[in-house]
Design brief:
Order of helices and strands: EHEHEHEHHHEHEHEEEEHEH
Radius of gyration: 19 Å
Number of strands: 11
CATH architecture of the largest domain: 3-Layer(aba) Sandwich
Shape: globular
Largest sheet: 6 strands, parallel
Number of helices: 10
Bound molecules: ligand L34
Helix content: 40-55%
Strand order of the largest sheet: 1-11-8-7-5-6
Oligomer: single chain
């Protein structure tokens, strides 16, 4: 029986800590962190995630500013909003929920967000800082996954870590965070030959592929820590991860569920990043 890594419980702890620090920031300095979340179009999954972010803002005591723009919004219009938010002192963090509709180039949007307010840590300046280990915030999903690994008490240093998936928002930064912790890191992807032989070496296995039940029991080493970043919606409307949970769970020493694993952590780390951004913008170091 694997230890079930409870993302909801760990995220609640992180949010409680952020709430207390926010209270102190308000009392001592009169500063309330503000997060602007921009959603373009009507993707139902994005809608759920953005609502969860808004609720989290309320729970920790932030101001939240939501901008719901229509599906046909042009890139120029979105860039204009980003510029307005960049200049707004009440807004400490800016997040444009991805994906954006196809007429908008997400790179252009990410590049336009002020790096100091880029609480996703997607801007090239922040990505570069992460690469050299000189960062003030980390991308929320990999940072959340790392908190979940830490919650198991397992030491990353020296361990074999395998990340499946090489996206800019999860796979690549996840590998970098594990490397910063002195893991021995391998990134696998669609062109990897004999994938199972590589993933079977992993003491820590992170799945970020975006395919339901992709990781099967034969791909997992006995006693591995398994972190499932996938959120796939099945035809019956149910959420399901990248890991075949029922088959893999008996082999793992610890495993995250979906839902209730990495998803809630993404949001908790967003709260932490927004607090960090607010403090930095006001030159507060305590
Ligand atoms: N800009 N775009 C930007 N930043 C992000 O950090 C995200 N991401 C990903 C999609 N696009 C983004 C999110 O917010 C994924 N993501 C996200 C956030 C929250 C949850 C899942 C994904 C979440 O709350 N998951 C719940 C279940 C929610 C449900 O019922 O659908 C869970 O327990 O996993």
């Amino acid at each position: 029986m694997a230890q079930l890594i409870d993302g909801k419980a760990v995220s609640a702890k992180v949010k409680e800590q952020v709430r207390l620090e926010t209270q102190a920031l308000i009392e001592k300095h009169g500063i309330t962190p503000g997060l602007a979340v921009v959603i373009v179009g009507n993707d139902p999954a994005s809608r759920v995630y953005v609502n969860n972010k808004k609720k989290a803002c309320e729970a920790v005591g932030f101001k939240s500013f939501e901008y719901a723009l229509p599906e046909e919004t042009t890139q120029e219009e979105l860039l204009e909003l980003v510029e307005t938010l960049n200049a707004d002192p009440n807004v400490n963090g800016i997040l444009v929920q991805l994906p954006v509709p196809k007429q908008i180039d997400d790179k252009a949007i990410i590049n336009a967000i002020s790096p100091a307010k880029d609480v996703d840590a997607f801007h090239p300046e922040n990505v570069g800082r992460i690469m050299i280990g000189d960062y003030s915030f980390l991308p929320c999903t990999p940072a959340g996954a790392m908190e979940l690994i830490d919650s198991t008490g397992i030491e990353v240093a020296g361990k074999r870590c395998v990340v499946i998936g090489r996206s800019n928002i999860v796979g690549k930064p996840m590998a970098m965070l594990l490397l910063h912790r002195s893991g021995t890191v391998t990134i696998c992807h669609s062109r990897t030959q004999d994938l199972a032989s590589v993933t079977r070496e992993a003491d820590i296995l992170v799945a970020a592929v975006g395919r339901a039940n992709f990781v099967t029991a034969d791909m997992v080493k006995e006693g591995a820590v398994v972190i499932d970043v996938g959120i796939n919606r099945l035809e019956n409307g149910k959420l399901c991860g990248d890991v075949d949970f029922a088959a893999v769970e008996p082999k793992a020493c610890a495993i995250t569920p979906v839902p209730g694993g990495v998803g809630p952590m993404t949001i908790a780390m967003l709260m932490r990043n927004t607090l960090t951004a607010a403090k930095a913008q006001h030159g507060i170091t305590d």
